[in-house]
Amino acid sequence: MNHPAWTEIAAMVRGAGAAAMALFLCGCATTPMRSLRVERYRPDASGRAPWTWNESAAGVAAPAASAAVVPAPAGSVSASSATNAAAMIRRFKAGDRIRIYLRDIPAREDISDQIDESGQINLPLLGVVKVEGMSTSEVEDYLEKKYVEDGFYKRITVIVLADDEEYFVQGEVNRPGRYPLGRGRTLLQAIADAGGYTDYANRKNVEIIRADEVQVYNCVKIEQRAADDPLIKPGDIVRVRRRIAPWE
After folding, report:
1. DSSP-assigned letter for residue 28
2. Are strands 166-171 and 237-242 parallel, antiparallel or unpaired?
3. Is 215 within 8 Å of 187 (Cβ atoms)?
4. Burial of 135 (0-12, 13-18, 19+ CB in 10 A)
5. pLDDT above 90 coverage of the chain, percent
6. What kind of fold does domain 166-242 have according to CATH?
7. Which of 3-7, 43-47, 63-67, 132-136 has the largest mean confidence?
8. pLDDT, position 230
9. Residue 56 DSSP class
10. Is the entire prediction scored with pTM above 0.90?
């Protein structure tokens, strides 16, 4: 048997539930439901790649993409590097001694001179020429052009060196003497410049004298590529010894 009090309580609960449902439905009709969505962003500057919840209806902006870092082109040279390289080029100044070799002409000439206080030297046919502030390659280009343009030669090769940019060959070679030091000159090339060996040369006993140091080389092995061909440096003396025994 139902007690009147319990019946009244049940009716009140049903009424409250119906009212709550009505209020909920009314709210849904007047306020749009906001959706949530998930977006994956690219790694940020710290390398993180999180899943981020973004409330679209609230207008929350996605994180701004980090600016791309463009690397410098491969092989590019900075302005400071170019400046340092230019500073390393040797340029003539007053008081420097200079050697000039005129080649590919009927009578080749070797000229040794000292740059005067005005930065000038005296050359055959051309007379006084200013070379102060110029590099060796610049003097070479200028003199070759000058000799041809002034009508002295149709073709000429000019080699310009500072006085310390030369080497000497002595002993059993066909043309011992002083020679200009070209770029990358090796021992075998130096001997070839001096006309090669005489019949009495000991090719297994060739010296390079550099300051107070003497190095002995076996040029037979160098020619056979069994040993390295050493580079000649400014001021070096190459001395080819004479054979004592026929089998040397």
Report:
1. H
2. parallel
3. no
4. middle
5. 44
6. Outer membrane lipoprotein wza fold like (3.10.560)
7. 132-136
8. 95
9. G
10. no
CB atoms within 10 A of CB 88: 6
Band of the pLDDT at 174, cuts 50, 70, 90? Answer: very high
Please tell me the distance from the alpha carbon of residue 199 to that of residue 174, in angstroms, as a whole number: 9
Lowest pLDDT segment from 77-91, 127-141, 202-216: 77-91
- What tokens were used for 224? 């056979």
151 contact partners, CB below 8 Å, separation of at least 6:
none
- CATH architecture type of domain 97-162: 2-Layer Sandwich (3.30)
And the tokens for 87? 């500073």
- The closest of 67, 71, 75, 101 to 180, measured between CA atoms, is 101
Report the SS3 class of residue 214. Answer: strand
Cβ contact 180:101 at 8 Å: yes
* Six-digit token string for 85: 């390289």
Domain borders along the chain are 97-162, 166-242
Half-sphere exposure of 71 (CA within 13 A, CB side): 3
Distance from the Cα of residue 80 to its chain's centroid: 12
Strands 237-242 and 201-210: antiparallel
How remote is the C-alpha of 156 from its chain's centroid? 33
